[in-house]
């Protein structure tokens, strides 16, 4: 009962305590382990799950609320809760200026089939690069030709399938991104040199 109350309490962090109009928050409890027999009340319960946010400050705030919620609910029932949060990735963030600069390149690589999408709460270790230098993360479509996007299996599902012909577009995109970025960088350097010469 305490475990289920904690799960419900964690959901109120999203529905009642977060400013969802500013940034998205996801708290999903995906593991519930307890008990060894049907007629014995478990001595302890292990809960596990995932927390997703689009903002680093919000992420830390949610972590604090998760710990407080779990401990207080357990305490109210005469139990204790130990909380461990493993930060596997940072928030993946696209540098706005770099993104705007590179959109024409992605359009060129995809025959004008690239578009800017709303932020998603996917976890991605690319975020560690983006924490060091201005970066841009993009998705490459791999849906089999002729398929309906609404009926195509998503990532992390048993029926997921990638049409590898999309890899050619990916290679082209990466090459053009490098070439065009270098051209932009050289152009900026040239402009600065000309400004100094006057």
Summary of the model, kept short:
44% of the residues lie in helices and 10% in strands. By secondary structure, it is mostly helical.
Give the helix tally: 5
**Separation of the first and last Cα atoms:** 76 Å
Total domain modules:
2
* Spatial extent as radius of gyration: 23 Å
Low-confidence stretches: none
At CATH level 3, the topology of the largest domain is DNA polymerase, domain 1
Dominant shape: elongated
**Overall pLDDT level:** 89
By secondary-structure content and strand pairing, the structural class works out as mainly alpha
What is the number of strand segments?
Answer: 2
Approximate strand percentage? 5-15%
Structure write-up:
By secondary structure, the protein is mainly alpha-helical. It folds into 2 domains: 2-76, no CATH class; 96-197, DNA polymerase, domain 1 (Orthogonal Bundle). It is 44% helix and 10% strand. The chain is built from 5 helices and 2 strands, in the order αββαααα. It has helices at 2-17, 56-76, 96-109, 127-130, 166-197, and strands at residues 25-34, 45-53. Strands 1-2 form a two-stranded antiparallel ribbon. The chain is elongated and about 75 Å long. The mean pLDDT is 89.
């Amino acid at each position: 009962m305490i475990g289920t109350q904690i799960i419900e309490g964690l959901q109120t962090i999203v529905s009642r305590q977060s400013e969802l109009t500013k940034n998205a928050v996801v708290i999903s409890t995906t593991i519930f382990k307890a008990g060894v027999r049907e007629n014995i009340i478990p001595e302890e319960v292990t809960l596990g799950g995932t927390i997703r946010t689009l903002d680093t400050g919000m992420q830390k705030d949610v972590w604090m609320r998760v710990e407080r919620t779990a401990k207080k609910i357990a305490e109210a029932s005469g139990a204790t809760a130990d909380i461990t949060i493993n930060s596997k990735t940072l928030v993946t963030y696209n540098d706005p200026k770099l993104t705007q600069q590179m959109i024409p390149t992605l359009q060129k690589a995809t025959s004008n089939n690239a578009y800017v999408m709303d932020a998603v709460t996917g976890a991605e270790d690319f975020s560690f690069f983006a924490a060091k230098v201005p970066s841009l993360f993009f998705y490459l479509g791999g849906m089999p030709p002729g398929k309906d996007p609404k009926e195509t299996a998503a990532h992390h599902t048993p029926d997921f399938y990638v049409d590898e012909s999309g890899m050619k577009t990916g290679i082209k995109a990466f090459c053009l991104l490098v070439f065009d970025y270098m051209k932009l960088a050289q152009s900026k350097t040239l402009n600065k040199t000309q400004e100094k010469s006057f």
